Amino acid sequence: MRVSAEGISQGISQRVSQGSTLGAPLAAGLGGTDADLREDRWIAVAEASAARICPNTAFDLIGLDADGVAHPLSGTLPREAIGPRLLEVLESSILWARIESGRRYAAADLATLIPSWPRETDLGAVFVKDGEGGLGAVLCAAERDAPGTAKDSAEGCGASLEVALQGWRLSRRAIGLRAFAGALVEAFSGGVMVLDAQGRVVYLSSTAEDILGVDASGAVGGDCTRILRPSVEAEHPLLRGLEGELETVELYVTDRRGHDVPVALTMRRVVGGAGSLQGLVCLIRDLREERSLDEEARRRERLAVIGELAAGAAHEIRNPLTGIGNCAQVLQTRLAEHEGNRKMADLILQEAQRLERIITSLLGFAHPRQPRMSECQVEEVARRALELEQPALEGQGVRCEARVIGRIPPIYADPEQIEQVLINLLRNAGKAMPRGGQLTVETSAVRRQVHVRRKMGRRATDRIHVPSKGPVARFVRVRVQDTGQGIPPDALTRVFDPFFTTRSDGTGLGLSISQSIIQEHGGFISVQSLEGKGTVFEVDLPIERRRGERRREPRDA
């Protein structure tokens, strides 16, 4: 049975067009390899046909892509024989309008027929056309074969050469579409899932694998309801998307580890030319980080309200409290001879002073002072803070040690505020070791990744900034380690929350204020603790070369 060139060409076109719709070929179009779409396969077929057309001469095979651009594909002619001028002529519509497909032209014929044909070349040619447009050409050196042989070869091999050049052109286009589709998938920050008309998964991107906790090799070809599993039993959203009932939805899905993951699905049906359903493209966006930031924004709003209320209450309470303290001092003097009454007056004054400290902390939390930047040595600030607290710590049996590892570069910071943070950490460490222990303050220079800032500063000019990955930068780290009681796991995640404390005499504002101070400096404070073993706080402050200007001005992002 003889197959015509037109029939083979239609088969190739159908094969490539199937790959541009949905169904099984799309998997190869996006992420796999399809042997039928390989350029080199068609170039090899075309080269074999060209060799039969020019059996005894050197030749070069030139192909024209879908845009009419000429590409040297293979051959044995010297490289200098195929110059830019010759390729430009082959791209001319005038040439293809004047020549016949399959006919072999001598160099003299071409020079007469096509005025722009390079006259310095002695190359003949056999051209292959597709209707009125060109597919390619075989450029041949001067003939040395027997009369009639080349003509017979050209006529016999013209059909196979036409099919091969069509296959090369279509495969080149398909490869370009594949690369473009792959780039689009990689550029999208979420996951991509593609279904055929029956709801089977034909493609799953690597990001979608991570979100759903599945392996694409096991998911492709499977039922979509087994791959994407809603946490709540309901009609499956992908099936509704295939039916055209749903385009966007937010829901929780259960991954293979049993975790509930919030996702947003954006679905688009793909319909063929005859109106038949080809499949569904589903974009999957992981909402975990977005939900986390939304919750952080709501928490920030609540803290702002709490701060304003605390500031107002503190101002209203401070005036009468001052009067109470003054009266208590007068009573101390007048009741000096009455021991019992004197003790009551002392108690009133002590409690008034305690309330004053709480009010001062409230005002510091509600209206944090902007840092006054200057060049300082962090190890000196840490040493001074330890010297201030060391007598009280050693009085309760705590051994204190200060370490400096390597050379510590100067940084731009507010020394008073950093000292305030370190004193608070040292006091907390001392209270965690009522029976004594070991306290170590270690200063070093480190490199660390500037990760996503989960806790925002509390200035009105702050904005949410979510980089995908932070750069690696240099920091000075102060590490405060104790061997005390440790922090219970249920309390560890709340230690920086305002008004949260595990001590009856604490205000719950010390660590919250410390965190705000470090964040205002562009740094990080973190905690690790094992109950019964001890606690480590790490304060990381950035090393800047711009004299702190970035921290002096309100941040825009």
Description:
The protein is of the alpha+beta class and 557 residues long. The chain is built from 18 helices and 17 strands. It has helices spanning 5-20, 24-30, 39-53, 84-90, 93-98, 107-113, 149-187, 206-212, 216-219, 224-227, 237-242, 288-334, 339-366, 378-395, 415-431, 489-492, 510-520, 549-552, and strands spanning 59-64, 70-75, 104-105, 124-130, 133-140, 191-196, 201-204, 248-254, 260-271, 277-286, 374-376, 398-405, 411-413, 437-449, 472-482, 524-530, 534-542. Strands 2-1-5-4-3 form a 5-stranded antiparallel β-sheet, sandwiched between helices. Strands 7-6-10-9-8 form a 5-stranded antiparallel β-sheet. The radius of gyration is 39 Å and the shape is elongated. Mean pLDDT is 76; it is low at 1-29, 31-36, 144-153, 452-468 and 547-557.
Shape: elongated
Q: How many strand units?
A: 17
- Indicate the structural class: alpha+beta
Spatial ordering of strands, largest sheet? 2-1-5-4-3
- DSSP helix fraction: 40-55%
Provide the β-strand percentage band. Answer: 15-25%
Instruction: Summarize model confidence as the mean pLDDT.
Output: 76
Tell me the span between the first and last alpha carbons.
72 Å
Q: Which stretches are low in confidence, meaning pLDDT under 50 for 5 or more residues running? A: 1-29, 31-36, 144-153, 452-468, 547-557
Radius of gyration: 39 Å
Largest sheet: 5 strands, antiparallel
Number of alpha- plus pi-helical segments: 18
